[in-house]
Amino acid sequence: IFVDRYNNINLINPAAKNILGLTEKSLGVSIDTSNNCPMSNFRTVIKKEFQIKEIDKANHDNKFISEEINIMVNDQEQIYKVITAKVLDTNKEILGLMKIFYNLTREKGIDKMKSEFISIAAHQLRTPLSAIKWVIKMILDGDAGELNVEQKDLLRKGYISNERIIRLVNDLLNVSRIEEGKFGFNFEKTDFQEVLATAKSNLEGLIAKNHQELIVQKPEKLPKVYLDKERMVMVLQNLLDNAVKYTPEYGKIEIIITTDKKFLHVKVKDQGVGISKNDQAKLFSKFFRASNALKLETEGSGLGLFIVKNIIEKHNGLIELKSEEGRGTEINFSLPIERKF
Fold first, then answer.
1. Per-residue confidence at 194, pLDDT binned at 50, 70, 90?
2. What beta strand segments (E) does the chain contain?
3. pLDDT-derived band of residue 119, with 50, 70 and 90 as boundaries?
């Protein structure tokens, strides 16, 4: 669908007519193009019922927005990604706006099947992995008799490897729950100091082992924030774990917490390897790991930051990343102090 510079529908191709139920009478109809011309502004023209999900408000140069719509076509629900792009002439003058529709129904169906498979596989793996964990733990604790040094060392390595698989399985289950909308939250007004203390204590041993310095800057008193404490500990611990993992020995890691009237702002800053500009856009995607991180640290699922982003967004918060390769990474997130969800 093309909307000209006078905000009138100027062109509709046959596919758009068929899918959206438009006719020649729709040509010339005026459309409100404010707010980057979202699909909600077409409800007076498109007579079919459709649901809208906004994906991206705008890209960095504000040239397009991206949405998803669910609409019934021939008695079947279809999912379309809708891109709104500015149409420019050779002098960079705006001629109008183009709505471009991509059919995502098949891709969404495949994604759903993948999520279901991951969920089933992860659930099936949890029980035997837990059994292996406790059997090894009992043997290490001497419940089955004394062990020599070499036996203990081998069993500890097995225990650590098993723990890594358990963490991977838990990450897979969390991703599956997020995609199915079953990642439960328990919101209550919580002192963020408790979240900080728990996340710090879980990593103090590793920080000491690496001879790293953890610096915390925060107000003397932090406001209580509506959040899920368990999920927010997961967020902060994941960000700190990455900072510790990719910062060299004797390096410095900073947590800076500030507040204003509406938001609590948290910054986690490291002196690690940094992330290239090409990799930054994909960093919050599933299974993605930066190329330089793969060389430095071969282990990792690439799911942690995907989970972190989803938790922050569920709290109606914002998260962003600043990084320069070879000069460290800074991740900032903001949480509304009062409940807004």
1. very high
2. 2-4, 9-11, 50-56, 64-73, 76-88, 94-103, 188-191, 213-217, 224-227, 252-259, 263-269, 318-323, 329-336
3. confident
